[in-house]
Structures are given as structure tokens and as C-alpha cells.
Design brief:
Elements lengths: L1 H31 L27 H24 L6 H6 L2 E6 L3 H4 L2 E5 L8 E6 L6 E7 L15 E5 L19 E8 L3 E8 L9 E8 L7 E6 L4 E4 L2 E2 L11 E8 L5 E13 L20
Antiparallel strand pairs: 1-13, 2-5, 3-4, 4-13, 5-12, 6-9, 6-13, 7-8, 7-12, 8-10, 10-11
């Protein structure tokens, strides 16, 4: 009886293998000459004589050059780390009152930022960036439109934003800004009277915190004059996916990844914002640690 069962199982396995062989033989011409598993070829085009993996560029010289570049970056990072915080001596770090993070004097400075708008969800807002007069500032301008896309799902629209690119270290490692030695954000801007939201994104400790943002308002007064704006870090509040969180806590200043600006005041029309520089300030007169109430979730009974 056991022998009969083994023979039946072997016969069924043999039939399955035969069916797979027939299927592979029929699909063979389709799989052998195409990267996308398609036999279509433009009229007059010669069939490819190489397999897809043979078209990859395996250059030993490029690999060695890339390795040298990464090793030089690692060497510089190690030297800066041994020198002191931020590549500065400890005495200079402790006495540092101001620091310029970004200034806009060339196209290379503009390339450190990324623009986005509600076009990504089907909206009609537009945003652009270019160098201002005499190449002395960044001019962020565009048109805000609150028209909701007709997709049956989106309920709100109308925003534009500018966000700094995350810093990357050697061998594509994450790099963070350490702003723990300062207590305020310091900017020199010239706006058109419209309010903006300043956003700080920190590296999350847990995956469910990936959408957390620390935000605060920046009000521009308009007119031909520049204004210097100071925003204490203690004023930034925590939000996630556009909702202000009940559980508030100060910004993790030693894990800052990016800084951004968003306009979404629900007013259709053109906007513009000129930014001369963005920096940090250690205001000794500012004593506030955190501006919002922190709830104690483990209150003893």
C-alpha cells in the first residue's frame, strides 16, 4: 500500500514538472530578449544580443574613485569629530553666540533646497525659487490656489513649501544638525505680509514618529524693508500629519534633519518671500524652556 502511494505521488510530481517545462518553453522566447518580459521590438531595431545584466556598467575605475571620495569624507568627519563639536574647538563652541546655517549667494546654495506644492495631490498651486537682486538672497515666489482636485477624496488644497535637503555623510550615512548650543532661530527675510509656517523635522526614534513636525508661525509685514526675525525653539509645537498633538515636548535639537517653510493661509493669489540667510542665535536673555503645558500621564493615584 505504501509503495502504491509513493508511485502515485511520483507520477503527480512528474506531471507537474512536465507542465512547468512546457510553460517555460512557451515563455522562453518572451523572457530571453526583454528586460520587461515583452517580445515587442521597434520596427527596424536589431534584437538585443546581450542579456539585461550584461548591459550594466561594471567599472572598476569608477568604483575605486567612489571609494576614495567616501574615504576622504570619512577622514574629514573623523578629524572634525576629534577637533571638537561641529569641527570647532570646545572653547569656541561654548562661547559661540551665532551661527549661519544657510545663505543664498549662488545657484549651488539654492540646490540645497527642495520645493513642493499641492500639485502632488492634484492641486493647482505653483512655487518657484531663484536668486534675488545682485545674487544676495533667495526669492521664493509662486501662486497659491485652494481649488480642490476633483478626485472624490481630497477635501483641502492650497499649500506650497520649501525644505532643505537632508545632510548625508560618508557612505550615505545620515547626518544630523546639532543645535543644542542655541535657543533661537534667526532669519533675515522680506515678505509680502502673508504668514508662513516654519517647520523643523527631527530624526524619529520610532517608526510611528516619522510624520512628526515641530512648527511655529512667521509673520511678515510686507513693504520694501528687510526684517530680522527671532523664533525661540521653546515656541515650536509638535504636530503629526497636520494635527497638533496633545502630548507636547521640546524640539530634539541634537537630531535635526531638515528645516522648511510652508504657506497655506487659504488666500488665493501670488506670494513671495525673500530670504537673505538662516541662522542660529543663543539669546542669553531668553530663559523659557518650553512654552506649552506638558501632561503627566503617570499621575500617582
Amino acid at each position: 500500500m505504501a509503495l502504491a502511494v509513493m508511485l502515485l505521488d511520483g507520477a503527480s510530481f512528474h506531471r507537474a514538472c512536465c507542465r512547468h517545462k512546457v510553460l517555460l518553453s512557451s515563455l522562453g522566447p518572451l523572457l530571453s530578449h526583454s528586460k520587461l518580459y515583452s517580445s515587442y521590438r521597434r520596427p527596424g531595431a536589431e534584437p538585443e544580443k546581450k542579456l539585461s545584466w550584461q548591459n550594466a556598467d561594471f567599472s572598476l575605475k569608477k568604483s575605486i574613485d567612489h571609494l576614495k571620495t567616501q574615504l576622504s569624507l570619512l577622514k574629514k568627519e573623523t578629524q572634525d569629530y576629534l577637533k571638537g563639536p561641529g569641527g570647532n574647538p570646545l572653547s569656541q563652541h561654548l562661547l559661540e553666540q551665532t551661527r549661519v546655517l544657510w545663505q543664498f549667494r549662488s545657484q549651488e546654495d539654492l540646490n540645497k533646497w527642495v520645493l513642493s506644492s499641492d500639485v502632488e495631490i492634484g492641486g493647482k498651486s505653483k512655487v518657484y525659487i531663484k536668486l534675488g537682486g545682485n545674487n544676495q538672497a533667495a526669492l521664493l515666489y509662486g501662486t497659491l490656489s485652494t481649488e480642490v482636485p476633483r478626485d472624490g477624496e481630497t477635501k483641502y488644497s492650497g499649500y506650497c513649501s520649501m525644505r532643505s535637503r537632508p545632510e548625508v555623510g560618508s557612505f550615505n550615512r545620515k547626518k544630523y544638525y546639532d543645535w543644542s548650543n542655541f535657543n533661537s532661530l534667526y532669519l533675515r527675510v522680506r515678505g509680502d505680509g502673508r504668514p508662513w509656517m516654519v517647520n523643523i523635522y527631527t530624526d524619529p526614534y520610532f517608526s510611528h514618529q516619522k510624520d512628526d513636525l515641530y512648527s511655529y508661525f512667521m509673520f511678515t509685514r510686507g513693504g520694501p524693508y528687510w526684517e530680522e526675525i527671532t523664533i525661540p525653539f521653546s515656541k515650536f509645537f509638535l504636530s503629526s500629519r497636520g494635527r497638533v498633538q496633545d502630548n507636547q515636548h521640546p524640539v530634539w535639537l541634537d537630531k535635526v534633519r531638515t528645516l522648511g517653510f510652508t504657506i497655506g493661509d487659504k488666500v488665493d493669489g501670488p506670494f513671495q518671500l525673500e530670504i537673505d540667510f538662516i541662522g542660529l542665535l543663543n539669546d542669553r536673555a531668553h530663559k523659557e524652556k518650553f512654552a506649552y503645558e506638558a501632561y503627566d500621564k503617570n499621575t500617582p493615584v
